[in-house]
Design a protein that fits this description.
By secondary structure, the chain is α/β, with parallel strands linked by helices. It folds into 2 domains: 233 residues, Type I PLP-dependent aspartate aminotransferase-like (Major domain) (Aspartate Aminotransferase, domain 2); 126 residues, Aspartate Aminotransferase, domain 1 (Alpha-Beta Complex). The N terminus is likely disordered. Bound molecules: pyridoxal-5'-phosphate (PLP).
């Protein structure tokens, strides 16, 4: 809402009172949580005049991310999308190539495939993790082979923080010689069998966009155990300058590097990541325990003990048969009335107008999830009282 004016007419005075005292504070889906040393580190970067372009905080953030994820090499970048774009470039993906992408995800997982002039081939989900279905992936590989084509890479997403069936996907990639890029934009800190999401593939990508579990206000990272790949990523991300005293270029470069100021914020955020994950997991459990009891309501859960999710967002499914046809739209509207943000699950990419001509291997899972699901507020600072308020709204709508 806009700020009311402070003139002394009745209307304005009333509006002012309403603004100050009546309107409830909005509860957001996943707002930034700057509770640690972010500002102190940012101020240190300012005071030392490391504003731009590079500076010591970039290296420090990369080092801290490498330690946290267990990846050998990290390049921090301007966004997660830039990281996917660089990963595809480094694999030599170009015009005429095909790249498999999870269909149930944000468009940013697939857009860079098109930037490279290649064709995304969408793969539907399985029901345990909601991520790329290994069986359908293998069908796609074989079908494309029969058509005389070959999938050059796959972008496998760990959506909402839940690790995909990474073992099976990774095995298929080795067997059919397909490069694995893990989109762990939503899954920083998640793990499979104790190994962090993003470290199974040839490369992994992270995002520090404003709504992610940690944020640098905007940013991303490319991670890999291959030092040469990450060195080349840094080169391409800084306009591909050859080592010469003057500006000389032997390749087309990009302006994709993270700024030193953003990295300083990232260092402060990363120190709190484990606390954020603990908190979001508690939030997920509280939703499951309270709302999961209602008829027709279910939640995405870790399928077995090998899976560890950061529960970036808690996601609720409504079965219309059992809820008497109450769906996400009614719940979303009721929450909005109380100034609470919620959002439907990702609309599958194979159903997006912009990708309508891309091949897709579909089993109906992602479409079903999109029809039935809603993301609930899951911010690291969401209080128990706020969560109770959210649950009450959901309970009221479902008991009508
Ligand atoms: C946020 C996100 C991205 C893109 O990250 P940006 O930093 O916003 O470019 C990619 N994939 C998924 C699944 C995301 O959620």
């Amino acid at each position: 809402m806009s700020l009311p004016c402070r003139r002394d007419c009745c209307d304005c005075a009333l509006n002012y009172v309403k603004f100050r005292f009546v309107e409830k504070k909005r509860i957001y889906l996943s707002p930034p949580c700057m509770a640690g040393r972010e500002f102190a580190l940012l101020k240190r970067a300012f005071d030392s005049n490391w504003i731009a372009p590079a500076g010591p905080d970039l290296g420090a953030f990369e080092q801290a991310l490498a330690e946290y994820t267990g990846s050998q090499n990290v390049a921090v970048l301007s966004s997660g999308s830039a990281a996917i774009h660089l990963a595809l470039m480094l694999l030599g993906v170009g015009p005429g190539d095909e790249v498999a992408v999870s269909s149930f995800t944000f468009a940013a997982s697939a857009n860079p495939v098109v930037y490279q002039g290649a064709l995304p081939v969408f793969i539907d989900s399985e029901t345990d993790t909601w991520n790329i279905d290994p069986q359908l992936f293998e069908e796609a590989i074989q079908e494309r082979q029969r058509a005389g084509r070959k999938l050059k890479a796959v972008v496998a997403v760990h959506l909402y923080g839940m690790p995909c069936r990474i073992k099976e996907i990774s095995d298929l990639c080795s067997r059919y010689e397909i490069a694995l890029i893990e989109d762990a934009a939503e899954a920083l800190g998640s793990a499979f069998e104790g190994r962090r999401a993003g470290t199974f593939g040839r490369m992994g990508i992270l995002s520090f966009n404003g709504n992610k579990i940690i944020t640098t206000s905007g940013g991303g990272a490319l991670i890999s155990d291959d030092a040469d790949l990450i060195a080349r990523a840094r080169h391409l991300a800084t306009q591909a300058r050859d080592p010469a005293p003057y500006y000389q270029h032997s390749a087309i470069g990009y302006n994709y590097r993270m700024s030193n100021l953003a990295a300083a914020v990232g260092c402060g955020q990363l120190e709190q990541l484990d606390t954020f994950i603990k908190r979001r997991r508690e939030i997920a459990v509280r939703y499951q325990q309270r709302l999961g009891k209602l008829p027709g309501v279910s939640f995405l859960k870790e399928p077995s003990r090998e899976y560890f999710s950061n529960f970036w967002l808690s996601t609720m499914l409504l079965d219309p048969v059992q809820t008497g046809n109450v769906g996400w739209a009614e719940v979303m509207a009721a929450l909005e009335q109380q100034n609470i943000e919620s959002r439907p699950l990702w609309k599958p990419l194979h159903l997006q107008p912009v990708f309508k001509n891309c091949p897709a291997f579909v089993n109906g899972t992602a479409e079903g999830l999109f029809a039935r699901g809603l993301c609930l507020p899951s911010g690291s600072q969401l209080s128990e009282a706020e969560q109770d308020q959210i649950c009450e709204v959901v309970e009221t709508v479902l008991s009508r």
